[in-house]
Design a protein that fits this description.
Blueprint lengths: L1 H17 L12 H9 L4 E10 L8 H10 L12 E8 L8 E9 L2 E14 L5 E10 L13
Antiparallel strand pairs: 1-2, 2-3, 3-4, 4-5
Length: 152
């Protein structure tokens, strides 16, 4: 009798542990990232990417570093010897020309260094794949500065 009760208890416990609620999705963003983007009038749709540059490795990514510093107008000179984290968020906003805008935030430690925007136009191909046919990098600017729907 005791063995049956123990087996029933274990079965109930195992069944209870296997229940999943697939309807609940929790997305967590750093509060300072949300505030940073909101200060520029942008709203996060979803997380896009995160890349950590080890201390003293930034200069190994010359092409990307040039894009960030020149087009994005973020000066990373003081951070070449520090770990830098680049986090991207797909934004809710779109323009007539660009249907996928990504806001990138660069930080070292807990300090935000700066950010930039990447304006993309994605087009669905006949086979269902997405192709990015136009991309432009811009300094972080307020959404109101877009004027007539384009970054420049």
């Amino acid at each position: 009798m005791k063995l049956k009760l123990v087996l029933i208890f274990m079965l109930v416990l195992l069944v209870g542990c296997n229940e999943q609620n697939d309807d609940i999705v929790t997305e967590l963003y750093k509060e300072q990232h949300i505030k940073y983007l909101e200060d520029y009038g942008w709203n996060i749709d979803r997380f896009a990417s995160e890349f950590k540059y080890a201390a003293s490795s930034l200069e190994s990514f010359k092409s990307h570093l040039n894009d960030i510093e020149e087009s994005g107008q973020v000066d990373l000179t003081l951070y070449y010897d520090k770990e830098v984290i680049e986090t991207g968020y797909i934004l809710q906003e779109k323009t007539v020309t660009y249907n996928k805008i990504v806001g990138y935030i660069l930080e070292s430690g807990d300090e935000i260094i700066g950010g930039y925007l990447e304006f993309n136009h994605e087009a669905e191909q006949e086979d269902g794949t997405l192709e990015i046919d136009q991309t432009e990098i811009s300094p972080m600017l307020h959404r109101k500065e877009l004027g007539s729907n384009d970054p420049r």
